[in-house]
Specification:
- It is a single chain.
- It contains 3 helices and 9 strands.
- The protein has about 180 residues and is mainly β.
- It has one domain.
- The chain has an 8-stranded antiparallel barrel.
């Protein structure tokens, strides 16, 4: 049997490989004025960004406040650095997780536009394909506040046991110089 033909027949690429273009996300661990995480989703050539007071959770329906901040430039997606004192956000920044994501909504217009429109409506559901975060998550606006949480699925857990080390370099925040 022709092995190439066999692979073609049986191989089904994961959803994230089928997305065009791949939409990237990152979660950065950051110690500025407070210790927090930043979650950023790529859309329309920018990184839509929120500040989380703690690491995201794999516990279903555990809502974490998500404070929207200005969009960021995608060129900083996977940077780890020490932001110098006196600069906005001064302090160490590590990449806690990264990967690609798929917005979960009906097919139609381009994914970028749908992500932006969903955020304007106040609700965005995504499937994350990260190193640490996998599965379905939702951003939802409740009044003037946003929340971010895990939806029940096969990737959900009953508790979180996170390592604070960078997914890229294995460094802790205090080791970033």
């Amino acid at each position: 049997m022709n092995l190439a033909l066999h692979k073609t027949i049986w191989y089904q690429p994961p959803l994230w490989e089928q997305l065009e273009p791949h939409l990237r996300f990152v979660v950065k661990h950051h110690h500025a004025s407070t210790l927090h995480d930043d979650i950023r989703l790529e859309a329309c050539g920018r990184l839509c960004s929120w500040v989380l007071p703690c690491h995201p959770s794999l516990i279903p329906d555990l809502k974490i406040p998500a404070i929207p901040v200005d969009d960021h430039n995608p060129e900083y997606l996977l940077t780890e650095r020490l932001i110098p004192a006196g600069s906005y956000g001064a302090g160490p920044v590590a990449v806690w997780d990264h990967g690609v994501y798929a917005p979960l909504f009906a097919k139609g217009e381009c994914h970028d536009i749908q992500v932006r429109n969903s955020l304007l409506r106040g609700e965005l559901t995504v499937r994350l394909y990260g190193q640490r975060l996998k599965g379905d998550f939702r951003f939802i606006r409740q009044g003037s506040r946003w929340m971010f949480y895990k939806l029940p699925d096969a990737e959900a857990k009953c508790c979180d046991q996170w390592d604070d080390r960078s997914i890229l370099t294995g460094r802790l925040l205090q080791e970033i110089r």
